[in-house]
């Protein structure tokens, strides 16, 4: 694993790793975790205590392919990606989420009433091998959303928001090749982010409607197409308020 400082720590086969007072294997260490560690002279992790923020109620966004489902109780991804700083970080390990009657299910048409009852791993509408985006608090799935895989991103300051769209100024888009944020318009013409029936907006650790956005909010958004190639209007699926 690589630290923000650039240092690499290797995980020993017999390393003791603890998360939430439970023994876990080294593959349970994820991007964004804070780790208290005892390291050998060979830069190998001997003992690690994961101090992640996932237990504090903060929301995180995952994406993965369904491997199995335990009706009305839980489901497992074969492998998963975790969204952090507008980038999907891939983890080649399974991940299990719990579900209950409060878990919300969305398709491109919007919320699915009693979606948990149709979330099955057998029959004509089996969900096995289907790919979903999950908004979770720790290992609890808060929302399970059928949305496209999106890797383009924009950011800017909100100056107008409604249920159908968000308008931003000081707009930037992320240039993948240059690996940096690039100003969209020197004239500051702004940009429009169209909201879909399955768009999720995260603010202050909560999922909120578009009307909760305020003028001056700084947002980043995962969008369907590159802003530079879309004449300033894009479809947004994951909106995160950064301030």
In short:
The chain has 243 residues and is mostly beta strands. The protein has no helices and 19 strands. Strands 5, 6, 7, 8, 9, 10, 11 and 12 form an eight-stranded mixed beta sheet that branches. A five-stranded mixed barrel has the order 13-14-16-19-18. A four-stranded mixed beta sheet has the order 2-1-4-3, with no helix packed on it.
Could you list some keywords that capture this structure?
mainly beta, globular, 243 residues, 5-stranded mixed beta barrel, single chain
**Beta-strand content:** over 45%
So how many helices? 0
Separation of the first and last Cα atoms: 29 Å
Shape: globular
User: Compute the gyration radius: what is it?
Assistant: 20 Å
Quaternary structure of the protein:
single chain
Judged by helices, strands and strand pairing, the structural class is mainly beta
Largest sheet: 8 strands, mixed
Helical fraction:
under 10%
Low-confidence stretches: 53-57
Give the mean pLDDT. Answer: 91
List SSEs in N-to-C order: EEEEEEEEEEEEEEEEEEE
Total number of beta strands = 19
Structure description:
The chain has strands spanning 10-19, 22-24, 35-39, 44-50, 59-70, 74-84, 87-91, 95-98, 104-107, 110-111, 131-137, 140-145, 152-161, 165-175, 180-183, 191-203, 206-207, 218-223, 233-241. It has 243 residues and is an all-beta fold. Strands 5, 6, 7, 8, 9, 10, 11 and 12 form an eight-stranded mixed β-sheet that branches. A hairpin with a 2-residue loop joins strand 11 and strand 12. Mean pLDDT is 91; it is low at 53-57.
């Amino acid at each position: 694993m690589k630290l923000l400082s650039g240092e690499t720590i290797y995980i020993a086969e017999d390393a003791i790793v603890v998360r939430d007072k439970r023994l876990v294997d080294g593959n349970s260490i994820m991007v964004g975790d804070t780790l208290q560690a005892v390291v050998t002279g060979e830069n190998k992790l001997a003992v690690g205590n994961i101090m992640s923020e996932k237990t504090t109620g903060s929301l995180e966004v995952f994406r993965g392919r369904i491997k199995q489902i335990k009706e009305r109780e839980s489901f497992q991804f074969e492998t998963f990606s975790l969204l952090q700083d507008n980038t999907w970080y891939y983890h080649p390990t399974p991940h299990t989420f719990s579900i209950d009657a409060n878990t919300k299910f969305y398709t491109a048409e919007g919320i699915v009433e009693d979606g948990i009852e149709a979330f099955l791993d057998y029959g004509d509408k089996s969900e096995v091998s289907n790919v979903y985006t999950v908004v979770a608090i720790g290992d609890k799935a808060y929302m399970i959303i059928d949305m496209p895989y999106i890797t383009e991103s924009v950011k800017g300051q909100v100056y107008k928001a409604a249920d159908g769209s968000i308008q931003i100024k000081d707009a930037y888009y992320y240039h993948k090749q240059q690996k940096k944020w690039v100003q969209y318009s020197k004239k500051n013409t702004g940009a429009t982010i169209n909201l879909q029936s399955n768009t999720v907006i995260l603010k202050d650790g909560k999922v909120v409607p578009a009307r909760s956005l305020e003028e001056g909010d700084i947002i980043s958004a995962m969008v369907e197409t590159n802003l530079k190639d879309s004449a300033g209007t894009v479809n947004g699926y994951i909106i995160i308020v950064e301030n």
